[in-house]
């Protein structure tokens, strides 16, 4: 017996045991199709684990794995004691160089938070030194943080500064809560980002991104590279960010 029925028998509700895809992934695909088609609308309650187990003729473990991945990818959210519900997916977040993650989150009525992954001073790598107009070997500060909305991880960021511009920034408590880097740069260091350049791309998540953003490999991330400049055209900082494609979709406003 495997997954609750004989290994040579048919799976329930159109699942195929001879399919190279694992059964949990077949269930996940069918549930996702129901969400995308609107058969399961926003905030709709998913059938219970017992009901799905009976519908698909599989074990509770198989059902849980399918549902867990849909939660991790942002298709479902959990209400303890009530079950799983289809997540809202129509909301997008503005990509704006001069507005912080905190400002954007609060404008959408969400609760932002962050977790420090690492922070250090090092010699600037070439891909950072050139855009920041720094000589080879100049000291730079790097802060890597995991940004969350309502407790769910959505963006992994790396912020780079010339060390001389932000003395003591690593002495601040970045480990918990939601200290705004944008506010510290503006208020503590009197740096005024005025304009910038943004480069967008997409690729498969690496192992660290997949783990921290709760993605199931292979999974894509949207990557953003931003350089901010002050009114005199001097670089303030450089940011690399990897975005969860479903939990934090981005929008761009364009005007003719």
UniProtKB/TrEMBL annotation:
Residues 1-20 are annotated as: Disordered. Transmembrane segments: none annotated. Keywords: DNA-binding, Transcription, Transcription regulation. One of its GO terms (molecular function) is DNA-binding transcription factor activity. Signal peptide: none annotated. CDD domains: WHTH_GntR. Gene3D superfamilies: Chorismate lyase-like, Winged helix-like DNA-binding domain superfamily/Winged helix DNA-binding domain. GO terms for biological process: negative regulation of DNA-templated transcription. Residues 21-89 form the HTH gntR-type domain. SMART domains: HTH_GNTR, UTRA. The keyword Transcription regulation applies. SUPFAM superfamilies: Chorismate lyase-like (SSF64288), Winged helix' DNA-binding domain (SSF46785). PANTHER family: MANNOSYL-D-GLYCERATE TRANSPORT/METABOLISM SYSTEM REPRESSOR MNGR-RELATED, MANNOSYL-D-GLYCERATE TRANSPORT_METABOLISM SYSTEM REPRESSOR MNGR-RELATED. This is GntR family transcriptional regulator. It comes from Inquilinus limosus MP06.
